[in-house]
Amino acid sequence: MSIVDPNRMGVVTFQAFIDFMSRETADTDTADQVMASFKILAGDKNYITVDELRRELPPDQAEYCIARMAPYNGRDAVPGALDYMSFSTALYGESDL
């Protein structure tokens, strides 16, 4: 409250609230943004492969994703396809890994 009501009046103006929320959310990703990033890395496919992850991400990030992504089981799946959609939503607490 001290950020949005520095004079401790017990009132938060709408503009102070908007300014606070803008600062708080400016540097945060959403599951949709992360999925869109994976889709680009995957060449617009609904899945990503281990080779693509290792080629596009730093080694520690690639291995983190590989260890936690579930296999992708869509009709367009190839052997070793990984499900970046469920992984992305799980990162943001929107589903379980």
TrEMBL record:
UniProt keyword Repeat, yes or no: yes
Keyword field: Actin-binding, Repeat
Task: List residues of the EF-hand Ca insensitive domain.
Answer: 27-93
Repeat is among the record's keywords: yes
What SUPFAM superfamilies does this protein's entry cite?
EF-hand
Q: What are this entry's molecular-function GO terms?
A: actin binding
Q: What is this protein called?
A: EF-hand Ca insensitive domain-containing protein
Q: Which organism is it from?
A: Pavo cristatus (Indian peafowl)
